[in-house]
Design brief:
Layout (H helix, E strand, L loop, with lengths): L2 H10 L7 E3 L6 E7 L2 E8 L2 E8 L2 H24 L5
Parallel strand pairs: 1-2
Antiparallel strand pairs: 2-3, 3-4
Helix pairs in contact: 1-2
């Protein structure tokens, strides 16, 4: 998967492509970076990194991040639907 394909797929899912930063030092959010000989996909909250996963190819990191964002998006949509009107 290329970055262009990644961004196009996010848009199709209704996910803002700016949700993901590349090689960034953002304090909170999703990130993909090149670290020595591997690509890493992870998210940060208040500067602390969580669930960092390493890949040999950027395309694999992009696919992993895409699946994670889609799953989170669906989970959030499910929470919004679970509210009942009385």
């Amino acid at each position: 998967m290329s970055r262009r394909e990644f961004f196009d797929l996010l848009k199709q899912e209704g996910i803002d492509p700016e949700t993901v930063a590349f090689d960034s030092t953002i304090s909170s959010g999703y990130n993909i970076r090149k670290n020595c000989s591997r690509w890493e996909a992870f998210y940060r909250v208040k500067g602390k990194e969580y669930d960092c996963v390493g890949f040999y190819r950027e395309s694999d990191a992009l696919q992993f991040m895409y699946r994670m964002l889609v799953a989170n998006n669906k989970r959030m949509q499910g929470k919004n639907r679970s509210v009942c009107a009385v």
